[in-house]
Amino acid sequence: MRIAEAAGRLGISPRMLRYRESLGLLPAARSGDGAGRRAPPALRHRQFSDGDLEAITLALALERRYDITPAALAFGLRVLSDPRARAEVARLAARLGRLAPQPARALDFEQERARRLLGLGGPPGPERPPGQRPAAPPGLHQPHQPPFQRGWPDPRQDPG
After folding, report:
1. 153: CB partners within 8 A, 6+ apart
2. What's the domain count of the chain?
3. Which of 10, 61, 91, 102 has the most CB atoms at less than 10 Å from its CB?
């Protein structure tokens, strides 16, 4: 369908559709007749598919929901697709205190925990002489201690 019909179905003006196209908010144009740029300007018309209209409808809904302009939405899409722009916006957000810290991944937590338990490093803890194993957390027994040294009754003693 041509621009006038597409604009009518979307409830916006053809001029607004052209503006959105200039911002990069429309899917890439596909030439239906194969003539493309070689056709005279009078015969070059963008054709809109139902998929194009769905994408435009989604963009309109996002603009309404978040109260943003088409230009702001276009910038957001650029930030998502351009790593350099993303890094610069993230740096600004960090300076403004608007960037939430990344949540710790469960795997990172488990790896750090294993390193601490094995004494292979991790966050600095209490100082201890070289070669000495870290103390077990309260409530855990040391594997090399016999049970009667952990507070259990000594089986070698007569209970009576």
Report:
1. 159
2. 1
3. 10
42 touches 93 (CB < 8 A): no
The two structure tokens encoding residue 45: 């018309």
pLDDT of residue 121: 59
Please report the pLDDT score of residue 150 as a whole number: 54
The reported pLDDT for the residue numbered 113 is 80
Q: For position 42, which CATH number holds?
A: 1.10.1660.10
> Is residue 147 domain-resident?
no
Does residue 13 sit within a domain? yes
In a domain, 123, yes or no: no
Whole domain around residue 46: which residue ranges?
Answer: 3-81
Quote the Cα angle for 130-133-135, to 5°: 130
| 20 vs 146, residue with greater confidence | 20
Residue with tokens 């201890």: 128
